Amino acid sequence: LESVRISADNSKVFFLNGRGDGTYAIGVYVVNADGSGLRQIVSAASAAAALGIASSHINTNGFDSVGGNCLDRSNDGSSIVFGVSPDTGGAAVLTATSTGGSVHKLVWNLNQLFSVSISGDGSKVFYIAYPLPSGQPNQAVVTNADGSGAVTLGTNLSIGDAADVYQMSSDGSTVMMGSTGRLYNSDGSGWVLLSAYAGAGYSTDPPSI
């Protein structure tokens, strides 16, 4: 169980079950805040269909072999964004309704997906990832929820560890990127320094600003 998110009205909890255990299949789940009504809303089959591949390509680790914050939900309760990592084509970012309908491919062909976030109104999606082929620097990108209008906010960023925080504003106009200490404008027009120091997560990360 990972990437736990509670709905804005505190009524539901969304999470990824990244590794099938024989009892619960891998996928995206939602449960009522009182523990009742547990149900799967995105399965390996529905994610694979959005990518145009067989469900067997999203195996027992297909929702797990991605970064530590690879699920988010919009404040208005309409949409979710999440990552999958099939054994072909690289990691991908998908969107769906909060009930699991209309699963849609946002971006594919990623070497490693590190984090995703969706604006409160569901109009914008942010992700930070290492693209394929491997060896390229990470990229922080904002797109419209339908995948159009992609804007690269930065590359080769100090992205900390899996507990780092990346969050879009309610209207999608800004993105907070924790380890960089910066609040970015989603249109790529600039950023504001929020912190004088931000720690790098690993020895191989770029230096902190």
Condensed summary:
This protein is mainly beta. It contains one helix and 15 strands. The longest helix has 8 residues, at 44-51.
What does this structure look like?
The structure is a single chain. This protein is mainly beta and 209 residues long. It is 4% helix and 41% strand. It contains 1 helix and 15 strands. The strands form 3 sheets. A 7-stranded antiparallel β-sheet has the order 5-6-7-8-9-10-11. Strand 1 (2-6) and strand 2 (12-17) form a beta hairpin. The longest helix is centred in the N-terminal third of the chain and has 8 residues, at 44-51. It is globular, with a radius of gyration of 16 Å. The model has no long low-confidence stretch (mean pLDDT 87).
Q: Which structural traits does this protein have?
A:
single chain; 209 residues; mainly beta; 7-stranded antiparallel sheet; 1 helix; 4% helix; globular
Strand content: 35-45%
Work out the number of β strands: 15
Question: Could you list the spans in which at least 5 consecutive residues all have pLDDT below 50?
Answer: none
Order of helices and strands: EEEEHEEEEEEEEEEE
